[in-house]
Specification:
Elements lengths: L1 H7 L13 H11 L11 E6 L1 H19 L5 H15 L3 E8 L4 H24 L3 E5 L7 H7 L6 E10 L12 H4 L5
Antiparallel strand pairs: 1-2, 2-4, 3-4
Bound molecules: flavin mononucleotide (FMN).
Flavin mononucleotide binds next to strand 3.
């Protein structure tokens, strides 16, 4: 039942050590591209990260994390860096999502909404197959090094999300306000 799927899906932060089959990944991507999008702009671009690229991104991710929390050259910096490397390495699969840029601000807002719909389609398709996803907008998507690494022109593409994908190690709990608190009916 769709309601149960939507209610049960959770953001997953820890994964078991199991590869994600590329066929399964493609099914989730197929679900993503059927998201609604105004004017059929189809503004999403998916960057499927392989092992070598994940290793390079790992260094950048860890550096950004450590730089934010400690002084470079200190033991604390080193410790945060190494922990961040382990954390990033433990993601069985990574996909980054880019949005095709538009100079029209209305189109740009609508295209971001479409990208968000695509991500949710992806997440729900993944959850249905037993896969969990963390949708992140962390600093790595804003770093110019990420664009360089992926060979992207930031004037054409804006990275809007990074998806960490894998089989859940544990499923966190989440809550929502009751529907009555967020709805208002009119005669
Ligand atoms: C636009 C957007 C950006 C998000 N960015 C992050 C993020 O940077 N890091 C993170 O841990 N979760 C991120 N999330 C996931 C939310 O934290 C998560 O959806 C929320 O805690 C509710 O949990 P649930 O998805 O399990 O219901 C993001 C979600 C959205 C919609």
């Amino acid at each position: 039942m769709f309601l149960e799927l939507a209610q049960q899906r959770r953001t997953i932060y820890q994964f078991i050590d199991r590869k994600v089959d590329s066929e399964l990944l493609n099914q989730c991507l197929e679900a993503a591209i059927w998201a609604p999008n105004h004017g059929l702009t189809q503004p999403w671009r998916f960057y499927i990260i392989g092992h070598q690229t994940q290793q390079k991104l790992m260094h950048l991710y860890a550096k950004l994390r450590a730089d934010k929390r400690a002084l470079p050259g200190t033991e604390e910096h080193k410790s945060i860096f190494l922990k961040a490397c382990d954390r990033f390495k433990a993601n069985p699969q990574i996909i980054m999502l880019g949005q095709v840029r538009s100079i029209d601000s209305v189109k740009s807002k609508e295209d971001y909404a479409a990208c968000a719909c695509a991500i949710q389609n992806f997440q729900l398709a993944a959850w249905e197959q037993g896969l969990g996803v963390q949708w992140s907008t962390g600093p790595v998507i804003n770093a110019c090094e990420t664009y360089e690494l992926l060979g992207l022109n930031s004037a054409e593409i804006e990275l809007v999300g990074i998806l960490y994908i894998g089989y859940p190690q544990c499923i966190p709990e989440s809550q929502r306000q009751p529907l009555s608190q967020v709805t208002k009916s009119y005669p």
